[in-house]
Amino acid sequence: MSRGCARREGVTISGVRGFDEVSDPGQAALPGGKADSPLETPLETARREAQEEIGLPSNDAKLPPPFRLEHLCQLPTNLAKTELAVCPCVAFIHSGDDNAWNDADVETNLIPTLDAREVAVVFTAPFHNFLMVEDEVNTEEAHTTNSNKSRWYTGSWTDWHESPWRMHNFHVPVVGQSVRRAKEISADESQETAAEQLEKSGEVGALRRYRVFGMTARILVDAARVAYGQEPEFEHNSHFGDEDMIRRLQKMGRFTEKRTIEDDLRKEDLVKAAKI
What we know:
There is one protein chain. The chain has eight helices and twelve strands. By secondary structure, it is an alpha+beta fold. Strands 1, 4, 5, 6 and 7 form a five-stranded mixed beta sheet that branches. Strand 6 and strand 7 (85-94) form a beta hairpin. Helix 7 packs across helix 8 (267-274). The radius of gyration is 19 Å and the shape is globular.
């Protein structure tokens, strides 16, 4: 599984998954999904999934001018409780001449299509803010977000694969920004039906803040740590990814190509792996 996208101004693109999604319905997540085959690279998976979910072209030749996408890096692999290895791919979308102030709007000009069966809305979040405890707002935004500044971050420690794991919760304000909703841009009847169900089930388009948490939040924190060379203001795991535990589980014969829901990781699996 691969996830990833980044914007020029240091703003990440997130989507709230459709309520018909089998995996984490209604949750904010980065574009991503399972590889189609063992031969598909994490970047190829990330690009294909981003095209399917939010309409970002997977082929550089199909990116409209002045946009171009630069793959920066792949972060260490994260482990999901569903026994999926998540490989975050970080990309930089150039939206104009780097030496001139003529940038085009990525949200308006580049990502016009959502699949309502997979994604309910797309919104943006200030990338550097994933290192901070409170909202970072400029003067123009202060009047819409200042009253709720303290709502940006909450966190707590939990136990995951036999070690302390920091659960981050970010509450991203969307007041004053363009939020792309599936219903506005559905192209066929099945998508329109899905979009109507999303609106009835979640009212995601009416929220003033979207919650970003769990693995998605951890990936954003780690990406921001690398991008800015700065540690967060809040407590966090110092290591990146879960590759040590993944190697231990592989020695136990886990991560087979064909799997069922019974293959979800249990506490006893992790206890056994930790002793290897």
